[in-house]
């Protein structure tokens, strides 16, 4: 039996993920040429390495297509329904830090908290004859935060797959839920984070798919332990 470890194939997490593996004592090498998306762990035939995008890693962990993966906690929580039953998240790996936040236009001077935003959402239909529109690619995190955590039901999600911070100025949404690290994109777009508007403080994590197969589970737990799980 082999287990599969998924690592980011590109993007901001790739090099740090390989460094985290090296720190865990795993030397990863490509199988075939540099453009191949398969790898192996030197000296350990029980582990296959699959190079996927960070978001694909989250999806594959959710459907059991890979046993372990390194990816952002935000992608894992957004992509996988009933996440606690499907995967074990952690340890946190100390890179890929980003916060998923609720931001509103700076000129909304009387809106500083989620409670203020709830009041705005409630009044919105009467004032503007439509629901408050939230631009985001984080549908699940937004619904959980607004509806379940803050009891705000009167809103509409507008799917945004890029340049989300531009949506309020462009008129396609009123507010946003997106990721921020330095805050400079928010600032450039005259948006402010609500005081209690941090939905998730995300970073790269080692994530393990939960399985009922005892042999698989033991092998995956042993590998996770090398990362400090
Ligand atoms: N400044 C940032 N902007 C966006 N994501 C960031 C930032 N800093 C860290 N991250 C994290 O990086 C991850 C996304 O990485 P990346 O964009 O490489 O992956 P991806 O979504 O799979 O890529 P793609 O959209 O190109 O398929 C997320 O977990 C996110 O939290
Ligand atoms: O708080 P900041 O440091 O300004 O970073 C936040 C921005 O960075 C990311 O976009 P990026 O340009 O990396 O592209 P992506 O959305 O395709 O990942 C993210 O979507 C934000 O727009």
Feature tags:
D-Maltodextrin-Binding Protein, domain 2, binds 1-O-pyrophosphono-5-O-phosphono-alpha-D-ribofuranose, binds adenosine-5'-triphosphate, alpha/beta, 2 domains, single chain, 229 residues
Describe the fold and architecture:
The chain has 229 residues and is of the alpha/beta class. It has 2 domains: 3-97 and 203-226, 3-Layer(aba) Sandwich (D-Maltodextrin-Binding Protein, domain 2), CATH 3.40.190; 98-202, Periplasmic binding protein-like II (D-Maltodextrin-Binding Protein, domain 2, 3-Layer(aba) Sandwich), CATH 3.40.190. It has 9 helices and 12 strands. The protein has helices at 14-23, 54-62, 73-79, 83-86, 114-128, 139-149, 167-170, 184-188, 214-226; strands spanning 3-8, 28-30, 38-41, 44-52, 68-72, 87-92, 98-105, 132-136, 155-159, 175-180, 191-202, 204-209. A 7-stranded mixed sheet has the order 2-3-4-1-5-12-6, with helices on both faces. It is elongated, with a radius of gyration of 20 Å. It starts with a strand and ends with a helix. It binds adenosine-5'-triphosphate and 1-O-pyrophosphono-5-O-phosphono-alpha-D-ribofuranose. 1-O-pyrophosphono-5-O-phosphono-alpha-D-ribofuranose is lined by residues 162, 165, 178-185.
Shape: elongated
Which stretches are low in confidence, meaning pLDDT under 50 for 5 or more residues running? none
Hetero groups bound? Answer: adenosine-5'-triphosphate, 1-O-pyrophosphono-5-O-phosphono-alpha-D-ribofuranose
The CATH architecture of the largest domain: 3-Layer(aba) Sandwich
Percentage beta strand: 25-35%
CATH topology of the largest domain: D-Maltodextrin-Binding Protein, domain 2
The arrangement of helices and strands along the chain is: EHEEEHEHHEEHEHEHEHEEH
The side-by-side strand order for the widest beta sheet comes to 2-3-4-1-5-12-6
Average pLDDT confidence is 96
Keywords: Amino-acid biosynthesis, Glycosyltransferase, Histidine biosynthesis, Transferase
GO molecular function: ATP phosphoribosyltransferase activity
Domain ATP phosphoribosyltransferase catalytic: 54-226
Catalytic activity: 1-(5-phospho-beta-D-ribosyl)-ATP + diphosphate = 5-phospho-alpha-D-ribose 1-diphosphate + ATP
